[in-house]
Design a protein that fits this description.
This protein is about 80% helix and about 0% strand. It is mostly helical.
Length: about 140
């Protein structure tokens, strides 16, 4: 199971750091990726607000990607990080579901990230809850 955890965490880290980095560096391009570019054409004030929100979103996404990278490197080093990342994924998924349910964005705009988050949350939870091997006590 360890190789699967590492692969999923690595895939999530690459995706989130890449998309987060794009959002921070070029919010107008990120708006095109997420099909939010109509807001940029509405007015200069709307473009500034959307740009700021996309950059903030990018920073959070990049930070989440770094957490996934730490897990991919060594999932057993900080067991609490698995639980924290699982909760983090659940909150992200919940927020995305609310965005889709409200009609603000469509699933097609957020689907790839949502599916990765669901797979990562399930994988990390299963790995954290797996039976641990018994520790052998030395015979005295």
């Amino acid at each position: 199971m360890l190789p699967f955890v590492r692969r999923i965490a690595t895939l999530n880290a690459v995706f989130q750091c890449l998309v987060g980095g794009i959002a921070i560096a070029t919010p107008a391009y990120a708006a095109v990726l997420f099909r939010l570019d109509a807001g940029f054409r509405a007015s200069p004030e709307a473009a500034m607000a959307i740009s700021a929100l996309i950059r903030m979103f990018g920073g959070l996404l990049f930070g989440s990607g770094l957490t996934s990278a730490m897990i991919a490197y060594d999932p057993d080093k900080n067991p609490w990080l698995l639980q924290l990342a699982s909760v983090w994924c659940a909150v992200n998924i919940g927020a995305d579901v609310l965005v889709c349910a409200s009609g603000d964005m469509k699933f097609s705009q957020l689907g790839v990230g949502m599916v990765l988050q669901v797979i990562l949350a399930m994988t990390l939870t299963a790995y954290a809850l797996r039976p641990k091997p018994a520790v052998r006590q030395p015979l005295v």
